[in-house]
Design goal:
Layout: H1 14-39, H2 47-71, H3 76-105, H4 115-168, H5 172-187, H6 191-209, E1 216-218, H7 219-237, E2 241-247, E3 255-257, H8 262-273, E4 280-289, E5 292-299, H9 318-329, E6 334-339, E7 345-352
Parallel strand pairs: 2-4
Antiparallel strand pairs: 1-3, 4-5, 5-7, 6-7
Length: about 375
């Protein structure tokens, strides 16, 4: 369940903010009326009805706020219809009390008629209308801010859940083949090799299932996980699986979605190593280019034509990588496949260079990202 967002700043305590605005606003109204009367030589006697009128407005708007608090939650047509009716009634009552206070404490013989009384109603209607507009405006702003924050929170949770789901997807064929290989080694009484393979599998699964909550890992951690995975597969393919890692020292602490590269290696094994009698070479290259982290994985297999759009029977693979990159970086990434020369496939990933230390200086760009040379 998504927790309601906490208000920040002045409106952290909505009730306190209301009383500050209510008291401050009507005090300013009293000062304006009193100073206006004194400036027009109406004498100190004018201050008394001004105080009474201000207290009347203060009380009426408290009643209006109680009604508006309920109206703001109903259908708009009822909100605005009933608000208009309340506003008209409140303006009439305000005007009657204002005329009474003026006639009682300032001009006992004064009785407004016709246009004078209508003008008093219009003036009070404008004051209460402005108060109403401010009340609804602030409350609708707060509702909108809460809904926006809630949507952002829900989107972040959905995004995190999707990233976790994608991150935890492992090809069951890999697990089946690995366990089958371990079983075979046990039957052949090759206990040490079976133990080593089981230990590597446990370490790899621990890395894949126990990671940082945001689903990020350093390049160094990702490289170690790939080496565990390749060591497991090398038990099956032996000398047919030849690998090399060329990772620049300055990118070891760069961060990327964890297990992002494993499906690419898996596809390279499936489409490059498995079909060939003499196997294939796989090269993992990572380097920094300006403010970008560029990773390329190249193999010496049959090339791009041998890799289908979704290079995995369980829909985990290239589509998984595209989704995770889109979830993590939006449009600020590149993910490309190209043929290696003279044969093979190159996969390029270009993402922002990020580390735990955001203040780390960005080196000037040394080159345009290019695909890694052939293996």
């Amino acid at each position: 369940m998504v927790e309601p967002p906490v208000r920040q700043g002045f409106f952290r305590d909505k009730n306190r903010a209301f009383w500050i605005l209510q008291g401050g606003g009507w005090f300013a109204y009293l000062m304006l009326r009193a100073l206006s009367g004194l400036a027009n030589s109406m004498g100190l006697n004018f201050v008394v009805p001004a105080i009474i009128v201000t207290a009347t407005g203060f009380s009426i708007t408290l009643l209006l706020s109680a009604a508006y608090r309920r109206l703001i939650a109903v259908k708009p047509i009822w909100t605005w219809t009933l608000t208009a009716m309340l506003l008209i009634g409140a303006s009439g009552l305000f005007s009657v009390l204002e005329v009474w206070a003026h006639a009682t404490f300032y001009q006992p013989d004064w009785q407004p008629k016709g246009v004078q009384f209508f003008g008093a109603i219009l003036l009070d209607f404008a004051v209460l209308g402005a108060w109403t507009a401010l009340y609804y405006g602030i409350n609708y702003y707060l509702l909108l801010a809460e809904q926006s924050a809630r949507m952002v929170n829900m989107a972040a949770q959905a995004n995190s859940a999707q990233l976790e789901m994608l991150r935890y997807q492992l090809n069951p064929h890999f697990l089946f083949n690995t366990l089958n290989s371990i079983s075979t080694l046990v039957l052949l009484k090759q206990t040490e090799r079976a133990n080593a393979m089981l230990s590597r599998l446990a370490s790899f699964l621990r890395y894949s299932l126990v990671g940082e909550r945001e689903g990020l890992a350093t390049v160094a951690q990702e490289a170690e996980a790939l080496k565990l995975y390749l060591d497991i597969e090398r038990t099956r393919f032996e000398a047919r699986l030849r690998t090399r890692f060329d990772i620049a020292p300055d990118v070891m602490e760069a961060r990327l979605p964890s297990l992002l590269l494993q499906p690419i290696i898996e596809n390279a094994i499936k489409y490059a190593v498995t079909p060939a009698e003499d196997g294939a070479d796989i090269l993992v290259d990572a380097r920094r280019m300006g403010d970008r982290l560029v990773i390329t994985i190249a193999d010496t297999g049959p090339g791009l034509g041998a890799v289908p759009a979704e290079a995995s029977g369980t829909n985990v693979g290239l589509g998984n990588i595209r989704e995770r990159l889109a979830q993590s970086y939006g449009a600020d990434h590149r993910f490309e496949l190209a043929d290696n020369d003279p044969h093979g496939l190159i996969v390029l990933i270009d993402i922002p260079f990020q580390t735990d230390n955001p203040a780390q200086p960005v080196a000037p760009a040394v080159a345009t990202p290019v695909l890694v040379p052939q293996v």
